[in-house]
Amino acid sequence: MMNLFRFLLATTAFLAVRLNIAHTKEWWENGNYYQIYPRSFRDSNGDGIGDLNGITERLQYLKDIGFTAAWLSPIFKSPMIDFGYDISDFYAIHSEYGTMEDFKALVARAKQLDIRIILDFVPNHTSDECEWFEKSVNREPGYEDFYVWHNGTVDANGKRQPPSNWISAFRYSAWEWNEKRQQYYLHQFAIKQADLNFRNPLVVAKMKEVMRYWLDTGISGFRIDALPFMFEKAPDANGNFLDEPVIDDVSICPDPDDWCHLNHTYTLDQPESIEMVYQWRELVEQYRKQKGGEPRVLLTEAYTTFDNLMLYYGDGERNGSMVPFNFYFMNSLKNQSTAQEIVDIISRWMNSMPDGVLANWVLGNHDNPRYSTRLGVQRADLFTILLQTLPGNAVTYYGEEICMTDGKITWEQTVDPSGCNANPSNYESYSRDPCRTPYQWDASKNAGFSDADNTWLPVAGNYRTNNALAQLRAPKSHLQIFMKLIRLRKLRSLQDGPLKIKAIGNDIIIYSREAPGDAMYVIVLNLGAREQSLNINQHFDMGRQAEVITSSLQSAYNDGDILDPSKYMAEPYVGVVLVKI
Questions:
Q1: Quick check: 374 and 368 in contact, CB under 8 A?
Q2: Do 345 and 442 fall within a single domain?
Q3: What is the domain extent for residue 532?
Q4: Residue 247 covered by a domain
Q5: Active site (annotated) includes residue 232
Q6: What are the residues facing 438 on neighbouring strands?
Q7: Does the annotation count 282 as an active-site position?
Q8: CA nearest 210: which of 275, 287, 319?
Q9: Using 50, 70 and 90 to split pLDDT, how confident is the model at 24?
């Protein structure tokens, strides 16, 4: 099948415009980062679980589409309570995914194809099966305070209670009693995910050692997980952790066992977390000076305030993350968002960034419903066009390029700890399984993901009609549109042209990208269900004729169509990219 993939991709028509390729930049600038959830991407050995060799088999597919780098969700040794985000050995590959030799082969193949490999780095916690945790339980020298430990309190009845009211992101108390050590340990996620104590310099040094180890394998950087949780407010003068206040409006989240019930003033967004990112940026820059080669990139995950996201870039004196994921963009876009609201969201990010950094745009990942499901399948291409034609870096979650939708997972099939900690009546509000279903390669058994009788999560039910092979064969498809956009992003106007964007009424977003000496590109997005007539020249001077570069799948416009910009018809739920000719 891969030969067919390569043939179809190689023979796909290129842009029907005069090309003006942008000048060379650092590899990570204005790139497109592809998130692979290894467990769900491709199973090479028939056990129903995706693996490293499966990723290696499909790297050519990513290259032919045009991705800059592949970020792999955690591949390290783990009991898989949280599917790799509970790491027991930061120096070993999880056996279900393969071996270190398999990983080295993947990196080598990626280098051949000029694709960079980025690894998920999980610094906040380890599995309770990690050797470090066992040493800390036993109070071995150097490990006594490697994790966050506390004696707890004793209530009026003489019963021992957790140190504070802190709640896990996966529900219930964030404190767990360890019988052997006779203390509570903090876990801001699953019980088996013990929080490291980053106020201990030995922890900081150990995690930097882990980073250098994997950089030595030839990877190009890290995506850093759960940063706002990394530090907790230090204990008070009596050594106690303070209770967090209950939210002002309890009706929003009445369940006292739910994470959302508290204002996380002591467990989230401590300033030391951002400071640590600056230290890690210094580490990768020093690594380059010592070892040579290209820049190593940091991508950071932080569901936090807008102002904090800006600080993750840097503080004016020190550099931080190259790509602090723009969750402000992802979380602000709603199914009901108006054109003006979306324009304001985009403009705020563009106008607030520090000097010398790049914007980034992300609409999905392994923790959120897919944007085709969240924002509407009929508008999926429209939002893909938006994501790929804004300035800076774009992040693509596996399957977004073919408009994969969330799968249906029953309570009995649920494996995500966030969902399992709920109950049959409400688990769907918590489970992340639906956005993690196996990649839909073709219409064969298990969507071409695996030859196994059963896969770790069931394949989404629409795979026979919605899969990569079918979309490569089709004259027009979500994937064909995506590939056209990736090629478009390499042009100078889309790399360097300023963004001039505005809203027209409630439904129309229109913006231009034009670099000096290059063509003008105008993007028109109709969020609404009603066709609207539009004189584009009243907003951007496209002259008498414009050419359609690409448009949403359901559009009547075809690539290469020539139209009069003064009499443009904006079709319902359709995005169109035009070039002035």
A1: yes
A2: yes
A3: 498-580
A4: no
A5: no
A6: none
A7: no
A8: 287
A9: confident
